[in-house]
Amino acid sequence: MYTCYIGVGANLGNRRKNIKSAIRKITALRKTKVIKVSKLIESNPVGGPSGQGKYLNGAVKIQTELLPRILLKELKKIEYELGRIKTVRNGPRVIDLDILLYADKMINTKKLIVPHPRMFFRDFVIKPLLEVL
Asked: What is the pTM (predicted TM-score) of this model?
C-alpha cells in the first residue's frame, strides 16, 4: 500500500456537499482506504477568470494499491461523475481532485506531476495537507 495525499476543492454548487461526495467516492475505490480528512478552509480563487466564487479546500490522506496513473484516472472519473466540466484553465469547478503526493515518488509525465507543482505556493493546499500528514 502507498500513502498518498489528495487535494480537494470546489467553488460551484453546494461546495461542502460536492467535497463530501468526492471523499465518499474515493473511499469506495478498490484497493484504497481513506485514512484522514482535513477540515475545509475557504479561499479566494487563484488565477482563472475574474468573478469566480470562493473555494472550499481540503486534503485527504489515503492508502492505495492503485498505481499513480490509475489513481489519476479514477479521480478524473469521480470529477466527471460529480459534474465537472472543463472549460478554462483555473476556471470555476464543481469539484477538483489533485494528487499532491504519492508515497515518496517523483513523477513527471504529460498528465501527472508529483509532487503537485504549485502546492508549495498555495496556503489553501499546504494548510490542509499539514493537517493530514
From this structure: 0.94
Q: Beta strand 2-10 with 96-102: parallel, antiparallel or unpaired?
A: antiparallel
Domain 2-132: top CATH class: alpha beta
Q: In whole numbers, what is the pLDDT of the chain averaged over residues?
A: 94
Query: Of these residues, 30, 84, 104, 118, which one is catalytic?
Result: 84
- Listed in sequence order, the residues at least 6 apart from 127 whose beta carbon sits closer than 8 Å to its beta carbon are 38, 41
Strand, coil or helix: what is 60?
strand
Catalytic pick among 15, 16, 98, 123? 98
**Cα pseudo-dihedral 53, 86, 67, 102, rounded to 10:** -30
CB 97 within 8 A of CB 78: yes
Residue in 15, 69, 89, 93 annotated catalytic:
93
104 is an active site residue: no
Res 18: pLDDT = 98
98 noted as active-site residue: yes
- Low-confidence stretches of the chain (pLDDT < 70) are none
